[in-house]
Amino acid sequence: MQLPSVILCVLIVVTIALAQVPQDFGQLLRAHTQCQSTARISPTAININELSSGNFPNDPAFKRHLLCINKALGIQDTNGNLQINAITRLATAMAPPGTNRNTIQEVVNRCAVQRRDEEETAYQTDSCLLQARRLYSGK
User: Fold this and answer.
1) Phi/psi zone of residue 138: left (φ > 0), alpha (ψ -120 to 50 degrees), beta?
2) Which residues form the signal peptide (predicted)?
């Protein structure tokens, strides 16, 4: 897979995992473009089938990229700390209409866990949210 294809695949998966509402897509695209220059994701580390199922590559560059995007979108602050209100809004937006508020809170409680470092926090949180989205949709 060539690097431009990898970038597109990562953008699609991150969009699915993080985009709150359509107007946020522009913000996400800007963040992705900015973060791409610093993360240096290896094309061999990316498998689109794994990404779309919520199984992210255990790749330091991929983790840096997710952290950078999370910070740009306010999911993590500048110190890498999770922002629970932003994650709750995100989980609510990702859920199908009519999803019980308690179910959403359970997802937030399960996914919004501060890890040993900020990159691992971004990686685990985003992976968990994408997997929760798949559970919401039954896929």
Assistant:
1) left
2) 1-19
